[in-house]
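Structure, all two chains, one model.
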Amino acid sequence: MVGSLAPTHGVLLNARRLLAAVAVLVVAGVVVVAGPDPRGFLAPFAFHDPGQPPLLVLRAGALFVALSALRRAPRVAALVIALFLLSLAVRGGVYLLLLAAGAVLVTRDDDSRAPLAVLSGSLAVAVALAVAPLLAAHPAPPDPGDARAMVAYWQGRKNPYQARWWALGWTREEAAAPGDAYLTLATLDWDLGRDTQARKVLAKVIERGPLPARERAASLQTAWDQARPAPP
Amino acid sequence: MTPDPVEGTRAAETSLVWSLWQATALASLLAFAWRHMDLLGDGCWYIATGRYVLAHHAFPPDELFSYAGVRGPWFVNMPFTEPFFAWVTDTLGVRALLLTCTAAFGAALALFWLPHARGRFAKVAVWPLVVFAIYVQRDDLQARSQTLADVAIAVELLCLFRLRDGGRVASWLPFVLGALWVSVHPSFLLGVLLPLGFAAAFRVAPADSRPHLAPMLRFAVLLAVGGLLNPYGYRLIGEFIRFMSAESTTSIDLFRSPDFTRPDIAVALLVAAAMLFECLRRASREAGVGEALLMLGILTATCVSRRYVEILAAYEVVLAGRLLRGLPWSQGQPRGRAWIPLFALPLALGAVSLSARKDPWQNLPVEAAAFIEDRHLPDNVLNILHWGGYLDYAWGGKRRIFIDGRTTQFENGVLADHGNLANVGAGWGQALDAYLVNTVLWENGSPLDRALAGDPAWAEVFRKGIAVVYVRKSPLR
């Protein structure tokens, strides 16, 4: 009788046992898919390590459900609590805890609906946490060999120092004919308040750059002279 | 029937002794909290920002302190706390600020403890747990807005349990609480979520022990409205969400999982799990499935982030008081010689706590910062994150720093670069060049200290106590 909230004595399959079976399958799936933990099964639990958030939710769910079912068996409950703490100090212990919780669920029954709600809620959150990283789209970082792209990347992140550093590398590609790279470097120096250095870089473009770059440099210089005139 | 005069005198004496014990126990908690209340980077940048607000009667229009942080309009996320910290420090001194925060923290502890633990036995039995609540967060206890927010959390828990017990709470209270809380600390949003969590937890509880949920939901709504009436409120909520979801937040130690191998953390979790079980086992009106589910939620949050350890400890104090008040044998009271250890323990705790010499600046690079200024060492200065706030305070933005505790200002890769420099990871030297660093103020004996000591491009110019200063031999221009 799947989904029944009635006492379960004598019932072969009920919602709790079905959910327990699903929980075991989910955990087995996570273990198979994620493979061995990169930090090792003996490392303490750390939520921000890859793959750990769903396992925390399963820990919490397992603890609550097992304790709910063990209200009249404090010694076994103490064992479950010990396993819970062990699973935090030694992350591989989570599988022992889940096994114990599964055993408790199969062997003991409880007529409260709280464990069922917690178990199903935990499973839903655990699955969502496991799937979320797969759905999240991370923008690929630019190729460090492409200095121009790196400049754009750091400008987008509002870090003028890193952008300037990569612009400096980009200028080496234009040493013969100072153009966009030099203009970008000059602008970044200007924005950082390095007026003298900015004007020196701009002077190189005006002196040796191709015509379009020279024109842009000249208009930039005019704008700078109005904003912050060069000291005499 | 006339009352027995001997019994009457004994009761009056016990009452006086009992009042004395409560005062002693509370004072010992304050002394213990005072011992561990530090002034670290966060409190210092509050003061520095608050000084600007008080001087200009406006929030800063641009980044004030850092040369590497994101430029542009800067959001002050604690519009009351920062000017308040600055005013207290500049008017009464830095010790007064530490005392203020200790008093606020102590008031919160008293609210977690005394109203929930009814009966003398319960109050006495819970006192060690309150001491433990301070002990378990001793490394994170510092003068910052969290101590003021603790009072708000304590008041809210008091109101929610009053509602849970069928009592009433005046409508203006959550409203005013929300308006104040939002100006004090970003945890205001937690204040809105907590009653919703209460209602959700009790929704699952068996119907016969389920309190009315509507007053809890109304409490959450009124608290939210109170916060949003503050003209700054809606932006504070957005800022809080941005802070919690920021990549930088998860890279800070305080926001990562605690060290589960630490005995005090293990004890805190053990107590939480044991109380959870006790709530399920007894399932009385004092503590049942709803309380157990709340404990589960806070326990899980603690496993996610160390910053929730203090809420876990506070909730343990509250719940212990409720669990004990329901016990039939817990209504007794100490008599005769039983008072001796009851007084001796808090007195000893207070004496030990106050005997330690307290230097508010002991964890901050006071001399090194003054050295850099006095010798006019060249910019840019590279500093470690947890000293950035002090440098904001000491230099007031006249000399800019690399990074401080306002981590959302450093989402632009600076926080990651700081981590790489601290660990002397690949490309650390390149980062020093990229940020045009000519002076390094870092921790004495740290990996970066050792790396710079072996680098011929750098010269050590200061080494004392916790700090070391290096200068680039050929400054970058």
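Residues 114-135 of chain A form the longest helix (22 residues).
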